[in-house]
Amino acid sequence: MIRSLLFVPGNRPGLFAKVARVRPDAVVADLEDAVAPAEKPAAREAALDALAAARPGAGLVLVRVNPPGTSWFAADLAAVAEACARGVADGVVLPKYESAAQLQTVRAALPAGATVVVGVESALGVADARSLLAAGPDAAYFGAEDYIADLGGRRTPAGTEALYARSAVGLAARLAGVPAIDEAVVDVRDEEAFRRNATDGRNIGYRGKICIHPSQVVLAHEVFTPTAAEVAEAEAVVEAEAQGVAVINGRMVDAAHVKMAREVLRRTGR
Amino acid sequence: MIRSLLFVPGNRPGLFAKVARVRPDAVVADLEDAVAPAEKPAAREAALDALAAARPGAGLVLVRVNPPGTSWFAADLAAVAEACARGVADGVVLPKYESAAQLQTVRAALPAGATVVVGVESALGVADARSLLAAGPDAAYFGAEDYIADLGGRRTPAGTEALYARSAVGLAARLAGVPAIDEAVVDVRDEEAFRRNATDGRNIGYRGKICIHPSQVVLAHEVFTPTAAEVAEAEAVVEAEAQGVAVINGRMVDAAHVKMAREVLRRTGR
Amino acid sequence: MIRSLLFVPGNRPGLFAKVARVRPDAVVADLEDAVAPAEKPAAREAALDALAAARPGAGLVLVRVNPPGTSWFAADLAAVAEACARGVADGVVLPKYESAAQLQTVRAALPAGATVVVGVESALGVADARSLLAAGPDAAYFGAEDYIADLGGRRTPAGTEALYARSAVGLAARLAGVPAIDEAVVDVRDEEAFRRNATDGRNIGYRGKICIHPSQVVLAHEVFTPTAAEVAEAEAVVEAEAQGVAVINGRMVDAAHVKMAREVLRRTGR
């Protein structure tokens, strides 16, 4: 269950220990967007050394490699595979995911059971999301910034320009049974914008959020964790169904409500 | 022409006669969401007995069966087929429509000429809507509540979370030449919300509305029946085209306007 | 680079010279929607005579033919082909584009190197946009009025009814590497509505705008030409990347930003 997928610049390994305090569900040491080309090899080594020295938190520890097709991809993947084998990382984040063969390459390189989170963040990735996600990654994030950049468009606060793609990726993820992680909110100081955007994402069916600053993790958990009232209602619905009660709180207990109630309880770990 | 598809709980057959007063284009005795599992067999019998005793109104009389894959489906379908053969029902509403084979099964069970309205209301139904509707149901509704529940999302008053799917189903219906019936409005007391939502649906190309309360029928007819002004303009456009007049009311008479004008007149039965 | 695709009624060739003053990137002599059926042959002749007499401006000169399947299509296409061969037109606008075979027919009729702009403006065109645009037109416009008319819907100022299709066509165009030209704004007096609508289009990735009045050309160029500030920022990003600088103006220089910066510079001709 990844409610928060927190990216930390791979070339600032000193941050790894600090971000553990906010208890993200997954920490990602980012070797891609956060690291300039000239620094890539040094950042890779420093990041993996830091992970070996201390695990950043109790959640998943992942490394975002550079995309397939770049000169860094093979060495990044080999380094992460070794880290997984040694137990210092749990898996990989594969950005710009555009063909099922890329996922096969990554799975083949990693130890069995390693986690693979893919990024759907290009025109081709969005257009082919259904077959790409059917190939079976463990989770997928929708990268709105990169997607809109790939279209030559521009991001806006309302985000209408990405609604089609965000909806399409959410649907494709559901069809494949893959948890979907929602787009980043770039302005890390605007908590209300994050809450609003995360709520929109949850309404579409997303299960968690990209976080690009530790302060966003608590907000993501707030939005993507069912509230006590939601849990209580879900329990009532499930119990009503089990006892054959047709109406609860003046509302028909139908299949859709039971399904949503079970989903709520599943997210609380019950 | 189904401007209103009014669902009535199958386990409350006393309502059937009452709803006839609002003259819905189609009445649906609902054996699915409206009926708790323990009550299914009794509700089926009571509903069909009531339909045999008195036809609820002058419009189509349909029965919503439980979905394919449930233990009630076969008996529901057999009962509706018999009711159609006896002339007490006109056809079936098939919920959670997800494969063309389901439609074939239903067509094969019913007398020739029976009406089949399908529900597109799941991730798979929306994703495959184009081929599913090309299989040729008589009409299709978009079930936003169930679709969003299937995604694990949540409904909002604005409905942005379902815009992608609602648009995709409307487009698929047009490609197949199947009339599309728009999502339900759950708050049955909010007339303005219904009008606004129905207007949005009509703007996307929907031809009618799911109604879950008799009071919504008059609102659906209000929105989905062309106004006198619309009819007058449509007549003017069609006449202008017939006489080779290029401009009407200061507006070019082009193919798109003629097409829309014909559609307006068709909806008034002309 | 077509920031403005200005349509001029083919039966009013006197306007051709006038519209040249606003310097549209492309002028289109429209033989389709602007001309009533009875006037089609005379308008064709008058339009092409006028183009032969004087080129309307320094940009592309195109002729919109009537759609494939109409009785005028063959003669329209032959006349445009001849005009292209004589150098008085640069190509054709093919409306209601719905099959790759239509594009092949047009390409085969025109001299090599002639420009073909297609219109995606029907249910089928939108649904098949990915394969239709992969067939390789030089540019494509999205016709929201005709698309919504084809669905039997209605246009609104907010345009939500066309967001799905507008997004799908923009994505399909990007996948095919075909510049996408955005929908028309019908109220030619409302400059703010045009700016807003064009900005939305640019945000989705569109490269230019249909113009149906000369006054809209300057607005289209305003929106679709990068500003001095955008150019300066783009230059800074590209230079930072070349020098291996990782952060510019407090923002990480990542692949998405470099890509957008290059796109901005490309639009200014650099």
Given as residue ranges, the uncertain stretches of chain A (5+ residues, pLDDT < 50) are none
Main CATH class of the largest domain in chain A: Alpha Beta
Quaternary organization: homotrimer
Mean pLDDT of chain A, as a whole number?
Answer: 93
- What share of residues of chain A is helical? 40-55%
Report the portion of residues of chain A in β strands.
15-25%
Q: Please state the CA-atom Rg of chain A, rounded to the nearest Å.
A: 19 Å
Give the helices and strands of chain A as they follow along the chain.
Answer: EHEHEHEHEHHEHHEHEHHEEH
Largest interface: A-B, 30 and 28 residues
Distance between the termini of chain A: 13 Å
Number of helices of chain A: 12
Main beta sheet of chain A: 8 strands, parallel, barrel
Structural class of chain A: alpha/beta
* Architecture (CATH level 2) name of the largest domain in chain A: Alpha-Beta Barrel
CATH topology label of the largest domain in chain A: TIM Barrel
Q: What's the structural domain tally of chain A?
A: 2
